[in-house]
Amino acid sequence: MKTVYRNAGKRQSLDSINDCFAVMVITGVNPFVTRELVYNKIEWNGYAKHVCEQATEMIMADLKLLGNRG
């Protein structure tokens, strides 16, 4: 069984997570953001599995429009 480590501090909002990845893509810091990276970031913040899956799809669609190559 996989051990999942969760954020013990304040939970980041989904908008904040989306903004974080958007800045990474736009500035070129990481133009190859993967679905797994986004999912893990959301999961680490303690969101439920169905929220992680839906939010990952929405964030990846936004990142694709911004030029994400991952």
Describe this structure in words.
Helices cover 59% and strands 0% of the residues. It has helices at residues 14-27, 35-44, 49-65. The protein is globular. It is mostly helical and 70 residues long.
Give the SSE layout.
Elements: H1 14-27, H2 35-44, H3 49-65
Enumerate the spans where pLDDT stays under 50 for 5 or more consecutive residues: none
Structural class: mainly alpha
Q: SSE string, helix = H, strand = E? A: HHH
- In terms of DSSP E residues, the strand content is under 5%
How many beta strands in the DSSP annotation? 0
Helix run count: 3
Q: So what's the overall shape?
A: globular
Mean pLDDT: 90
- Radius of gyration from the alpha-carbon trace, in angstroms: 12 Å
Proportion in helices: 55-70%
How far from one another are the termini?
28 Å
The biggest sheet, with number of strands, parallel, antiparallel or mixed sense and barrel status, is: none
Provide tags for this entry:
70 residues; mainly alpha; 0% strand
Summarize the structure.
The protein has 70 residues and is an all-alpha fold. The protein is built from three helices and no strands. The longest helix is centred in the C-terminal third of the chain and has 17 residues, at 49-65.
